[in-house]
Amino acid sequence: MAKILSQEQNRGAQVGGASPGETPMNTNGQDRSAVIRPQEMAMLQDVLNQLLREKNISPADTRAQTLAARVIELFRSGVRDPEALKLMAG
């Protein structure tokens, strides 16, 4: 499952509508391409694992990738609380 999150993090770094040489920013001015630190990735992985278990979704299911993208999007928008991430992503 860490692979799902890593793929989504990399994809997020490539998206954002920034012009060449610009840093992609989300609507609240945070850098969407900022690297997620190992401890943050571990927390995001835990959140994703819990959501997948609760929803009975296999990590191989395309819905898992969609859910991972949502968790990362919320994190990058400033949501840092694991319970809030679960509620908002789920």
In short:
With 90 residues, the chain is an all-alpha fold.
What does this structure look like?
The protein starts with a helix and ends with a helix. It is built from four helices and no strands. The chain has 90 residues and is mostly helical. The model is unreliable at 13-27 (pLDDT under 50). Helix 3 (62-76) crosses helix 4 (82-89). The chain has helices spanning 2-14, 38-55, 62-76, 82-89.
Which features does this protein show?
90 residues; mainly alpha; 4 helices; 60% helix; globular
Bin the helical content.
55-70%
Shape: globular
Q: Rounded to an integer, what's the Rg over CA atoms?
A: 13 Å
**Beta-strand segment tally:** 0
Low-confidence parts, pLDDT < 50 over ≥5 residues? 13-27
How far is the first residue's CA from the last residue's CA?
A: 17 Å
Percent of residues in β-strands? under 5%
Q: How would you summarize the topology of this molecule?
A:
Blueprint: H1 2-14, H2 38-55, H3 62-76, H4 82-89
